[in-house]
Amino acid sequence: MNISRNFSADINDWLYKIQDVTNNIPVGPRLQRKGQVEKVGDGVAMISGLSKTYLNELVIFNTGVQGMVLSITENLLGCILLGSEEGIIAGSEVTGSGAVARTIVGENLLGRIMDPLGLALDGGASFVPMGYRDIERPAPAIVDRELVTEPLLTGITVIDAMLPLGRGQRELIIGDRGTGKTAIAVDTIINQRETGVISIYAAVGQKSSTINGVIEAVKRYGKMENCIFVAAFADSSPGTQWIAPYSACSIAEYFMDQGRDVLLVIDDMTKHAATYRELALLLGYPPGREAYPSDIFYIHARLLERSARLNSSKGGGSLTVLPIVETQAGNLSAYIPTNLISITDGQIYLEPKLFNEGLKPAVNVGRSVSRVGGKTQTSVIRHLVNSLKIDYAQFQELEIFTRFSTTTDEHTIKIIKHGRRIRAVLGQQQYKPLTLGEQFALLFALKEGILDRLDLDDVVHFKSGINEWITIHAEVVINRIIERDEMLLQDRDTFYQMLCGYGEQFPSYGGDDDEVP
Known about the structure:
This protein is of the alpha/beta class. The chain has helices spanning 2-22, 157-162, 181-190, 208-221, 238-256, 269-282, 296-304, 335-343, 352-356, 379-384, 388-402, 410-426, 436-447, 456-464, 466-484, 489-503, and strands at 34-41, 44-48, 57-61, 66-72, 77-81, 93-100, 102-104, 113-114, 132-134, 172-176, 198-206, 227-233, 261-267, 308-309, 318-327, 346-350, 369-370. The chain is built from 16 helices and 17 strands. Strands 8, 10, 11, 12, 13, 14, 15, 16 and 17 form a nine-stranded mixed β-sheet that branches. A six-stranded antiparallel beta barrel has the order 1-2-5-4-3-6. A hairpin with a 4-residue loop joins strand 4 (66-72) and strand 5 (77-81). The relative contact order is 0.10.
């Protein structure tokens, strides 16, 4: 099955190349398929008279606006408009194009902002197409995939330590509105500034202020020339919002097929599902659970399964996807969140309670999981965090319990003190992703109990000054450990003494005045 679908895709690419060449050659009259609009409204149009039309084919309306065929019945075609419906009325002429919906691709998209149809939105020059790709493409076959073994570092300690991601993985970012979902994705994009990973941000139904905020953050803290922004605004047509993640995914696959590593953020899948529900109901699809069409799972699965790590015969490129989905009151069992959890390789769950308590990023490590990335984590980091998740979960339970207790034993006090240091290390400011060396130093200090000798306030100062200290005193030994991915006993002892010396700069070092309620 996969072989025939791949063969069909190759034929389509070949036909497009022939079409690009022949479009510039003068020819005689050609037969054009014409139809007419029967009714139009709310971003969809019903068309009659266009014979031999297939799904996803582009049609051209009399105003020049394109549409895409999404449903076919015996007498009518259901078409979504990829632009304004102004000027399109019942009886308007429609022309079949004979081509499926596709997007432009090429190196010239890097550093630019575009809409899903390939129009520039950043005030720059119009794009000169270097190639085209269908927005709907089959996912790579199993035999073309490789094991996910290389890490994709986010620079966010709580994720890289306990929920590590791999290049070629699809990891869901899930949580209520306003809990920092987009912030995690943006920090991950910023952290790729020196890795060579190409980042693509697909905005689906987002406000222009939100999209502009993301772009400005990447311009200021990241590397804009390694990023592409595909924007379908909240006031864009439903059809444009519908194709946005597919167009962005096809652009990402163009770079992946060149052997490069790509990160795709889709913000967000909740709005994409709502858009599809709107279009499907207008086109007469039967509603299912929560009024979504019955094929909504397949709609998202065929998109996210295009994420992959290709084997060396296919160039060895990778496409990592971070879809974002919004929950209501933390309900992970709702229809769309449940679907996406089952499609992806894990989820990063952001909890409103933690966010309101000031812990940012507000990742609930107990309800989050990465089913693939553990195999990509470096050995030295994995050794430092092998019990971190359990220790943190135990601390969270004990901290709640001791609030109702009048006496607390020494063992419990020790666990709570250590847990508070874990929480201090996992907290992080936005737009400030940490290097692997900084994360290693902090996790080492945590595991070896160095941070337990400091007051909580000094832990914060210890953390804020670690980058400068590493640059001056410990860069050589840390680089040696990371490059070897092995911590020899001599390096361990050397680094331990150096880190203790750094800790001794703080007045509370060695003290024991942390009170536990």
